[in-house]
From TrEMBL:
<feature type="transmembrane region" description="Helical">
    <location>
        <begin position="84"/>
        <end position="105"/>
    </location>
</feature>
<keyword id="KW-0813">Transport</keyword>
<feature type="transmembrane region" description="Helical">
    <location>
        <begin position="126"/>
        <end position="150"/>
    </location>
</feature>
<keyword id="KW-1133">Transmembrane helix</keyword>
<feature type="transmembrane region" description="Helical">
    <location>
        <begin position="46"/>
        <end position="64"/>
    </location>
</feature>
<keyword id="KW-1003">Cell membrane</keyword>
<dbReference type="InterPro" id="IPR047817">
    <property type="entry name" value="ABC2_TM_bact-type"/>
</dbReference>
<feature type="domain" description="ABC transmembrane type-2">
    <location>
        <begin position="44"/>
        <end position="281"/>
    </location>
</feature>
<dbReference type="GO" id="GO:0140359">
    <property type="term" value="F:ABC-type transporter activity"/>
</dbReference>
<dbReference type="InterPro" id="IPR000412">
    <property type="entry name" value="ABC_2_transport"/>
</dbReference>
<keyword id="KW-0812">Transmembrane</keyword>
<dbReference type="Pfam" id="PF01061">
    <property type="entry name" value="ABC2_membrane"/>
</dbReference>
<keyword id="KW-0046">Antibiotic resistance</keyword>
<dbReference type="InterPro" id="IPR051784">
    <property type="entry name" value="Nod_factor_ABC_transporter"/>
</dbReference>
<protein>
    <recommendedName>
        <fullName>Transport permease protein</fullName>
    </recommendedName>
</protein>
<dbReference type="GO" id="GO:0043190">
    <property type="term" value="C:ATP-binding cassette (ABC) transporter complex"/>
</dbReference>
<feature type="transmembrane region" description="Helical">
    <location>
        <begin position="192"/>
        <end position="211"/>
    </location>
</feature>
Amino acid sequence: MMSVTEVERPVPEEPGALARMRWAVADTWVVARRYLLHLVYKPDELVGTLMVPVLAVLLFGFVFGEAMGAVMDAPGEEYREFLMPGLFALTMAFGIGNTTIAVVTDAGRGVVDRFRTLPMAPASLLAGRSLADVLSAVVDLAVLAGMGLLVGWRWHEGPLSALAALGLLLLLRLAFTWIGIYLGLVVRSPEAAMKFFSLVFPLAMVADTFVPTDTMPDWLVPVAEWNPLSATVIAARELFGNPVAANDSWIAQNALLMAVVWPLVLMMVFVPLALRRYRRLSR
């Protein structure tokens, strides 16, 4: 009687941490590239995003510039230098609307479900979305900075300080991107997403964006000073060497610190929320 010899098959080894990280980074770039190509093939979305800040430069820089400058006891050109960092931050904040609508649209079209069926890192879809939004924000800032140069805005503290200011603005955009991703996974329609986006407008207004906080009513000043946008705006003005309104509050005196702390705190809250919501959708 013949004996049957069992052949042990080798058990495939689990990929190490470094291999998993390379896998996740590669998948994240694939997803980000998809979203960036979408912007290339549909530039109307990018143009629509840039129209608001570009029009704001013209409107507040020239139409209302003299009046706003009179409130601050500053000539029009000085007010435009004060204004531009606020518009940079405003553009970063308004990007939350595009993120939310894009995520909820992808979910409604089944794009999220199709990505989940692919052998890719679980979080790469959301990470790719955030990377694509930050890279598109670089284009936003470049266009807006070019517009600012045309109307007389300049930076005065050297290229490294200017790059640091742009880095803080992109950090703010990254934080708002994750808020938008979470909202896009929660709401069920683009119409509902627009309702959340409408809340960003008063957030941008109640900040050091267009006028100093000391020109606001006393009860509104603490709200404006502790607004995450205010910290980034003041820090950007300092790094660009643009006019900064006198303010003795702790938050204004530590604007550079808070311009880093606020986005990190927001991401500590909304990144886990977005990932948890995504995992629930995957069940």
